[in-house]
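Sample 3 of the quickstart, ligand LHQ:
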Amino acid sequence: VLVSTADGVMTITLNRPEKLNAFVAAMHGLLREALTRAEEDAAVRAVLLTGAGRGFCAGQDLAERDMNDPNLDLGGGLEANYNPFIRRLRSLPKPVACAVNGVAAGAGANLALAADLVLAARSASFIQAFSRIALVPDCGGTYWLPRLAGLQRAMGMALLAGRVPAEDAERWGLIWKCVDDDKLMDEASALARTLAAGPTHTYGMIKKALY
Ligand code: LHQ
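Result:
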């Protein structure tokens, strides 16, 4: 995970591009640290989340877990790592933008959708991949998907686990905006800087009120 701060914006980049930034255990600690700093450091007035390489995040690294182990405690991992991170993003009293630079699957899709404003590259897509491996959507998906996109679209995404292109995601209200690939990072940085220049305390209250 790469973390840098400039112009009031903390940029957090998931950085395992060769595995489409799939989550391994070490990433959770680094993300926790970054969010603590984002919370505490007055110089951070907005957060921008993105991924390195051609993907945003392919969810949990499936090679890290033996999915056939009958004693595997996936719920424990969610409670310890994923769910607190999602809740902290939502409740951070500063705005969080996300630049979805490529495919966002499983936990990766719902992490992207946990940002306050989501931009996605036209070539990016969202996959509720969970049911492909006999899991229920996690990381807030069952709560947020029907609220963002409506119950039928949420149901279709969760049951069929298909790829939802960024343009559909925008049309469905899953995300704020779909932009041309070569404009994504410029637009996302401009958006994050605009947020960083705004009334941080008020933004925090707006988030609280809307959520
Ligand atoms: C991966 C992954 C991956 C490891 C691509 N793991 N290597 C679960 C358990 C516990 C707690 C929390 O919550 C969860 C929720 C989840 O996140 S469940 C869902 C997990 N994710 C998936 O099921 C998605 C799996 N990935 C895919 O279906 C494809 O990779 C997508 C559709 C995302 C992208 O396809 P392509 O663009 O064709 O890329 P690729 O499949 O060739 O992937 C590139 C590399 O990344 C490849 O490695 P390799 O060494 O062969 O080049 C993949 O194995 C690796 N990779 N996702 N989740």
